[in-house]
Amino acid sequence: MRVLVATGAFQGLTSAQTGAAMARAWAELGAQCAVVPIAETGQGFGRAWADLVQAGPTDWSDVEVFAADGGMALRFVDENPAEADEPSSSERLGVSVAALLAWAEHDGRPLPELWLEVPAWTWGDGGAGFWHATRQCHARLRGLRLHLVTTSAQAGLQLTGLRGITAATMHTTGAHPGELLAADQRLVDWCTSMGDPALGTTQGAGAVGGLGAAVLALGGDIVTGPREIARHARLADSVQQADLVVTGYDELDFGSKGGDLVPVVTELAESAGRPVVALARHNWISARELRTMGVEQGYALQSEDQGEAEVLAADGITAACRTIAGTWHW
């Protein structure tokens, strides 16, 4: 029997560690197991990518960088927010990327592909700060495959117009319509200055405070963590070769429904006609609802009386999976 484990990280573990702990229960029964670390932005994407390609970490002041021959994954950590009386800007991210590109070139590191992960931000400048800070590197950025890694909700945002980020922000703050229109027009003008007046209404341009617009203008794309790792790992091919697909999410509930991660795995499994078992520390979704999501059966590895904050160690995951593996083994 061949088992493919593609799971997100459980609290206190990486996705690779979580997957290995799950796979161990099936391996003990003689199954051939493969583990593919997979994660969402802000939930360990960079670490999952690094484990997938065996990349090593590199320390920088504002960013966490994982480097390998196939490219680099950069996770921006904004530890120096703008002063209260200063407008927030994506400039610091641009400065970090420019420095990273210079370092890679000086060190002779190949950089065919670059992933930018920004879990949290305060800017809404349409990527202007990033654009100006990387101006000397635009040719280099256009020459590689540039990806902004975010959530599916962010990937669907526009920058300008009624569905733009200014409209959404102004509506929630109750700003005057005139202020809304003026702010939106500034973003329209900004897109025009980048060479594409229609860029603002492009899907994904509003992602991450408008950083998506700058990334798109540089020839990059807007992606989700799970779909990008699935592409990079050729997960569809692995699913085809498996008899059973096991996925996992730290907490399965009606609010998240496995986030951006579980749907990617179930979509590939459904196309290949493979059953999917979903594991979580806690599962609050009924069997009927899980089946509508493409999951044959879902299991909670911790009891309801164990708090959400209680960490489940790797050995505990394996122990909890043994009975499940016995049920799903042939």
Describe this structure in a few short sentences.
The protein has helices at residues 15-27, 45-53, 91-107, 128-133, 138-142, 152-155, 165-173, 177-193, 207-217, 225-233, 235-241, 261-272, 287-292, 314-327; strands at residues 2-7, 32-35, 56-59, 63-68, 71-76, 113-117, 145-150, 221-224, 244-248, 251-252, 276-280, 282-283, 297-300. It is an alpha/beta fold and 330 residues long. Helix 1 packs across helix 14.
What is the CA–CA distance across the termini? 7 Å
Beta-strand portion reads 15-25%
How do the strands of the widest beta sheet line up side by side? 3-4-5-6-7-8
Helix content: 40-55%
Radius of gyration: 21 Å
Task: Indicate the overall shape.
Answer: globular
Task: Set down the secondary structure blueprint.
Layout: E1 2-7, H1 15-27, E2 32-35, H2 45-53, E3 56-59, E4 63-68, E5 71-76, H3 91-107, E6 113-117, H4 128-133, H5 138-142, E7 145-150, H6 152-155, H7 165-173, H8 177-193, H9 207-217, E8 221-224, H10 225-233, H11 235-241, E9 244-248, E10 251-252, H12 261-272, E11 276-280, E12 282-283, H13 287-292, E13 297-300, H14 314-327
Parallel strand pairs: 1-2, 1-9, 5-6, 6-7, 7-8, 9-11, 10-12, 11-13
Antiparallel strand pairs: 3-4, 4-5
